[in-house]
Design brief:
The complex is a heterodimer.
Chain A (H helix, E strand, L loop, with lengths): L1 H12 L8 H27 L4 H16 L2 H11 L4 H5 L1 H8 L1 H26 L3 H9 L4 H16 L1 H14 L11 H12 L2 H30 L8
Helix pairs in contact in A: 1-11, 2-3, 2-7, 2-11, 3-7, 4-7, 7-9, 7-10, 10-12, 11-12
Chain B lengths: L1 H7 L11 H33 L4 H16 L2 H23 L8 H27 L2 H9 L4 H31 L11 H12 L2 H30 L9
Classes of the chains: A mainly alpha, B mainly alpha.
Chain lengths: 236, 242
């Protein structure tokens, strides 16, 4: 295991000399898809709890589609499926976008995490204490101000424990990226395995890196929860 | 016959081009694999949860290690790790015992791998559910002279299932969606069938979407079944009146 690490620690962590690989690539995939998913899911979650049928329904349909199918198939559709359509290849802009494995991977990941995040935030908005909204209304807040200053800050704080779960799940989901030739940690492990035949050691190192990142993220979220959810704790 | 019908309706673009049986076989493989893995992981989960709640440190510690390690590592990494190592380990064992070379059936290896991984998730689900059953229930059962097995079968299990069902349903969905990954380790499941059909007809998009829709049908059906089960195990609880 030590020899394997001596030979492969560079690609496992940041680069194989030509491009970003391993842990750095996994981080990039994770943060790009989470950021896009987060930004898009905020308006979508507000639409998801709308009393109007025609606003709520399209969002509900989107989350149903993306939460009901495996991410691997979504990635395959984005990466190989869409590019196999002649209509897409005929459009220069779309052709350039879907030819790049990285674009397809981040698109699939962002769409997937956005669907789950939308449901998490929508659940938090739905469960918001009535008094908070009534007090805000009594202060004369309405429309977007009600959402921007009262509902969303409260809902986002309360969904932190569920959101941290989604971040960990997303970290674990980024492993399918190697099927689209993106050189993440698992891709390096597979290359190391096929070069050295040290199967257990190659995948074992990948497992240990993922384990360390998972624990680090769990720790960070615990600190964040102590900071932003302190008001929910027992009173002193 | 299905193809002629589509032709008459002017929908020949949606024809399966003779890949229908292959896709059906793949879908059946996916269902079989998920159900077998579910059974194994529920069994491991029950054992793990009992070990985690045991008063013996010797049982608690390995169970704790099992759930922490397995849930901290991505399922695909574990799948590759276990799937490829199983054969190596078995060969080592058979060689050292002087037996003949045994080749593991990929389906069995897939079930063992998935079952072992999701057993850790079920351990946590069942542990929470067992803790949610009031202590007095088991104590009363002991006072009535029920044996250990009877206590579990007639008192603990029916009551903990009510608390375990939401988590159980969640885990089932995760297992079902994780089976899409077994095509990576070479099993001929729905995804593999769709890819093969798509590549040979140059209609990859169509067949992949078809596979996704099949998954959607299975997840929607399981949702229905779960709702029925929830109603069944809610018997005797006050919330059931809602």
């Amino acid at each position: 295991m030590i020899e394997l690490l001596q030979e492969y620690w560079r690609p496992f962590f940041y680069s194989d000399g030509q491009q970003i690989t391993g842990l750095a690539m996994t981080f990039w995939l994770l943060s790009a898809s989470l950021l896009i998913g987060f930004i898009v899911s905020i308006p979508l979650s507000i639409a998801r709890v709308s009393p109007r049928f025609y606003v709520r329904w399209p969002v509900q349909f989107y989350t149903y589609l993306f939460r009901g199918t495996p991410l691997y198939i979504q990635l395959l559709i984005c990466y190989t499926g869409i590019y196999s359509l002649a209509a897409i290849r005929a459009q220069p802009v779309l052709d350039a976008f879907f030819r790049d494995a990285m674009n397809c991977t981040i698109l699939a990941f962002a769409l997937n995490t956005c669907a789950y995040t939308t449901e998490i935030f929508a659940g938090a908005i739905r469960n918001i204490a009535h008094g908070e909204v009534e007090a805000a209304k009594a202060y004369g807040l309405s429309g977007w101000k009600l959402y921007a200053f009262v509902i969303m800050p409260s809902a986002l704080r309360r969904s932190l424990p569920y959101y941290s779960n989604e971040v960990i799940l997303m970290l674990h989901s980024t492993t399918v990226a190697f099927t689209a030739t993106v050189p993440d940690i698992l891709k390096v492990a597979r290359d190391a395995n096929s070069a050295t035949f040290l199967t257990f050691q190659s995948f074992g190192i990948a497992a240990l890196i993922y384990l360390a990142v998972t624990f680090a993220l769990v720790g960070l979220f615990r600190i964040a929860e102590r900071h932003w959810l302190a008001f929910l704790g027992p009173t002193h | 016959m299905f193809d002629t019908l589509l032709g008459v309706l002017g929908l020949s673009a949606f024809s399966l081009k003779g890949f229908g049986p292959l896709l059906l076989e793949g879908a059946w493989m996916t269902v079989k694999l998920s159900l077998s893995s579910l059974a194994l992981s529920v069994l491991l989960g029950l054992i793990g949860a009992s070990a985690k709640l045991s008063s013996l440190k010797l049982l608690r510690l390995p169970a704790q290690l099992y759930t922490t390690l397995i849930r901290g590592v991505p399922d695909l990494v574990l799948m590759l790790l276990i799937f490829y190592s199983l054969q190596t380990w078995l060969t080592l064992i058979t060689a050292s015992l002087g037996w003949e070379y045994i080749e593991i059936n990929p389906f069995v290896a897939g079930v063992i791998t998935l079952g072992f991984i999701y057993g850790a998730y079920f351990t946590e689900t069942f542990r929470g559910a067992m803790l949610a059953v009031p202590r007095g229930q088991v104590e009363a059962a002991t006072a009535y002279g029920l044996s250990r097995a009877q206590r579990f079968r007639f008192v603990m299990f029916p009551q903990m299932m009510r608390f375990a069902l939401p988590g159980l349903g969640n885990n089932w969905m995760v297992i079902l969606k994780a089976t899409a990954l077994v095509s990576i380790i070479g099993l001929a499941d729905l995804v593999k069938a769709a890819q093969d059909a798509g590549k040979s007809t140059y209609q990859l998009f169509f067949f992949l979407v078809l596979a996704a829709l099949t998954y959607l049908v299975i997840t929607s059906l399981s949702n229905l079944v779960l709702r029925c089960l929830e109603r069944h195990y809610a018997v005797g609880s006050r919330e059931a009146v809602r």
